[in-house]
Structures are given as C-alpha cells and as structure tokens.
Hints:
Order of helices and strands: HEEEEHEEHEEEEHEEH
Number of helices: 5
Structural class: alpha+beta
CATH topology: Ribosomal Protein S5, domain 2
CATH class: Alpha Beta
Number of strands: 12
Helix content: 25-40%
Radius of gyration: 19 Å
Distance between the termini: 39 Å
Mean pLDDT: 95
Low-confidence stretches: none
Number of domains: 1
Amino acid sequence: xxxxxxxxxxxxxxxxxxxxxxxxxxxxxxxxxxxxxxxxxxxxxxxxxxxxxxxxxxxxxxxxxxxxxxxxxxxxxxxxxxxxxxxxxxxxxxxxxxxxxxxxxxxxxxxxxxxxxxxxxxxxxxxxxxxxxxxxxxxxxxxxxxxxxxxxxxxxxxxxxxxxxxxxxxxxxxxxxxxxxxxxxxxxxxxxxxxxxxxxxxxxxxxxxxxxxxxxxxxxxxxxxxxxxxxxxxxxxxxxxxxxxxxxxxxxxxxx
Length: 256
C-alpha cells in the first residue's frame, strides 16, 4: 500500500506539485496566536495548514543542576494526544513524542534563545525553571516545525509571576518578560526519491526516505540539525536541504 502511495506522490512531484496543489518549496498557511490560555505564564497556538499544536510555558523557582549552579533550568515536554490522530495512543511518551521534544529542546539550547544565566536567583540554590509543554490538537503532518514555532511563540509571550524571595504568586503577573536573546526557527526538509520538499502532510510522511530538521536563528545562523529516516543523504543533498531550510526560516521568522 505504501509503495503505491509513494509512486503516486512521486508522480505528482515530477510535475513540481503535490496533492494539495502546493509547490515542493511551499508551506501551508501558518497562523500564530499568543496568549491563548490563562493557565500558563506564556502560551501560543500554531496552525500549519490543518496541523494544530498548543504550547504553554510554566515558570517556577527550583534548585539548579549541580553542574550549572548559575544557570536556569529548561525542560521541553511533548504530548501527542490520541484525539489528535488515530496513530497516537494514551500512555507514556512514545518514540515520536520524545523525538519532537528533543528536537525542540536542542534548537532552543543550541541557539541560546534564552539567556539562562539571567534566570539565576541565588547561585547554587535558586533559579527560575522554564518548562514548555506542547500538546497536539490535530496532527496533520509536520509536527516538528509546528511544535518548534509554538514553543518560541509561547516563550515570547511569557511573563514572570510575582516572587518575594520565598513564594511565587501565580495570581499576580508582572510585566517582566523572559530574557530572550534570539528566536530560532526550525524547518524540516524531507526527501522522497530524488525530490526534496518542506512541510510534509501525513500521507507524505508515511513514505519519507529521509528528513533533515535545521534550527536557524533570526540572524540566519544554523544552530542545530537532526537527521531522520532510514536512507542516507549525500553531501550535495544536505547542502540543498540546508539552503531550502534557511530560505523558509527567513519567511517564518517574520511571523514571530
């Protein structure tokens, strides 16, 4: 069945088009909304075509990690809700959820999106911990890019709650924002046969040969990459995939 699907997709690709009429280098419509819930210090909803995810940021005061006593903590969690796709099941995070969380986390860390040194309250004792929770509302392809966008948008929207040195008052929010230094954007370039393209649909993801997710800062600097799929990539293919990712990241950055 997948071989037939792949043959049909490649037939369309040969015409420079896809099932939904897009070109190979086109994203579906991207919509970013901030402040979508009052139950988090920062939040955002991102829609990429029919794919929809929500990200929430929780801020708390915790003990720093022993090897980074001056740095704040960062944690990314992804939950693939069964209601968003028949392919997802309830229970502990599966392989796909873990991969999405790691890719989002790596893009934020390697880009140094947050100046985590400024999250220190008392060296070795107290720091602000930034927890990002991402949930799928509708999984219609390209969760990697949608989740990364939602995480950055939610961080941009976040505000610190009142803190008197002992207790965090979540009912009283300040105007103080997170110390964000840059806004990384992740773009996943996918390969089927000899064709490379962006923003895959669910059908296209079922027959992917390889993919490369590239995290790029708003200054155009590449800060992280993650390769997926079972097929190898040549140096030339990697170069073309990176070039396409950088071009698309510049477009997405304007919406942040």
